[in-house]
Write a structure and sequence with these properties.
The protein is mostly helical. The protein has one domain (about 20-195, about 235-455): Up-down Bundle (Growth Hormone, Chain: A). The chain is built from 17 helices and two strands. Strands 1-2 form a two-stranded parallel ribbon. The longest helix has about 60 residues, at about 390-455. One of its GO terms (molecular function) is fluconazole transmembrane transporter activity.
Length: about 450
């Protein structure tokens, strides 16, 4: 017997839950997402003070940010896929990891040596990662297909905006309170994830199966998720860890989306190196005023949301209401246009970052680049969640790993890149490489359906 929802209106189905429960989940997921992203970049303003106290180079100090980013790349590969395992679900990884993250944040703010600081920053990223990687899957659990792109956009915006606002916050507080204050701000902002209702379809049906199995022990039962899955999701932790690797090795669509989103994500994190170089170095602004350039990221992210929401409201939603099935590739349409914003913004930033041109012009380039990046990653999130619904958390986890790995590398190579080639040469090189991504996203849009037909996921 296959255990499934009792009908289209089954209240156990998260998509049928009342609005207040969905709002609670939205609030917790997005707030937790914001806190972890802020925790990565809020450290940027503390690097000078940390260098003075421990007597280390700028490269070592920069590792505090880079290792955090690397940590939240490794974490999803181990922890987030567990939420796809029926007998575990979404909540346990969230609750356990967020509690450990809070404890690590206290230790990080009080550690007395640079080695311990680096280890703790990596562990912070590691245990903060499950919400970053699987929060989108949680939002997808409670949203129907029409609302899901908008829900995922709030998730993407909360992360991008938070990571950009954090350096501004620390730039104004660290000079007054000391370099450790940015680490204490993480403790103040953070709180363990509330025990929200379980949203995983597999876990809810598994719990229902357990209740029915106790009542009817003589009947063999499986859940609808187990019946549809080509691999037993209850086969243990090994399967949970291996699936993301298999998906990226065997499915070219997943491989491309992860590499492309990783590259543009690395460009985003390179901003934390190049913006001080431009606004403090070229334009001679004080550090607190120079940090306000990060607001251009927030402006770009929210302004691009207007046409994106228009696409959802005027194109995707009417088709869905008419009963027309929208292929996952159709969800990539905004990314086709936005893919041009990334190289365009980088070229504008590269060629106008000079004292003779007002600082607002290169700042516009940063806003354009940020707008393009957030829509590309947003569309990829929607594409993955709709193309691989049974393995959404695994797909997000693998994607998060590659994105973070490339961002880690970007934080290390961006300073040498800009010192060797200058702002114009370095940003032009990145913009030129983005052209390959533009071609790739168009190829995925054209041939993605055929590739999905051959996929075993």
């Amino acid at each position: 017997i296959v255990v499934d929802w009792y009908g289209a209106n089954d209240l156990a189905n998260p998509k049928n839950w009342p609005v207040y429960k969905k709002v609670l989940i939205f609030a917790v997921v997005n707030y937790s997402n914001m806190v972890v992203y802020m925790s990565s970049s809020i450290y940027a303003a503390s690097q000078k003070g940390m260098m003075e106290e421990f007597g280390v180079s700028s490269t070592v100090a920069n590792l505090g940010l880079a290792l955090f980013v690397l940590g939240y790349g490794f974490g999803p590969m181990i922890m987030s896929p567990l939420s796809d395992v029926d007998h575990i679900g979404r909540n346990p990884p969230y609750l356990i990891s967020s509690t450990i993250f809070l404890l690590l944040s206290v230790l990080t703010a009080t550690v007395g040596n640079v080695e311990g600081l680096m280890v703790l920053r990596f562990l912070q990223g590691f245990f903060g990662s499950p919400m970053l990687a699987s929060g989108g899957a949680s939002l997808g659990d409670v949203c129907n297909e029409n609302v899901q792109p908008l829900a995922l956009y709030t998730w993407a915006c909360s992360g991008f905006a938070a990571a950009s606002i954090a350096p501004i916050l620390s730039s104004f507080t660290v000079p007054i309170m000391g370099w450790r204050w940015s680490l204490w701000e993480i403790v103040i902002l953070n709180a363990p994830t509330l025990m929200t209702p379980e949203t995983s379809r597999g876990k809810i049906l598994y719990m229902r199966l357990q209740r029915l199995q106790k009542r009817y022990p003589e009947i063999h039962m499986i859940t609808a998720v187990q019946a549809k899955s080509p691999r037993p999701t209850t086969s243990g932790l090994w399967n949970a860890v291996v699936v993301p690797v298999q998906m990226h090795l065997l499915d070219p669509s997943i491989t491309f989306t992860s590499v492309y989103s990783g590259f543009v994500y690395g460009i985003y994190y390179s901003f934390f190196e190049v913006l001080p170089f431009v606004y403090e170095g070229i334009y001679q602004l004080p550090s607190d005023m120079a940090s306000l350039a990060y607001l251009s990221v927030v402006v770009g992210v929210f302004l691009i949301g207007i046409p994106y929401c228009g696409y959802i409201y005027f194109y995707a939603l009417p088709l869905s209401q008419k009963g027309v099935s929208i292929a996952p590739e159709q969800r990539l349409i905004p990314a086709l246009f936005s893919s041009f914003l990334v190289p365009g913004g980088l070229f504008l930033f590269a060629w106008t970052s000079r004292p003779s041109i007002h600082w607002m012009v290169p700042t516009l380039g940063i806003a354009m680049t940020s707008a393009g990046i957030v829509i590309i990653i947003q569309c990829i999130f929607v594409y993955l969640s709709l193309s691989y619904p049974l393995y959404a958390a695994s797909a997000f986890g693998g994607n998060s790993f590659l994105r973070s790995l490339i961002a880690f590398a970007a934080l290390l190579w961006s300073k040498p890149l800009y010192h060797e080639l200058g702002v114009g040469g370095g940003s032009s090189l990145l913009g030129g490489l983005c052209i390959f991504g533009v071609a790739g996203i168009f190829i995925l849009y054209r041939y993605g359906a055929a590739l999905r037909m051959k996929s075993s996921f």
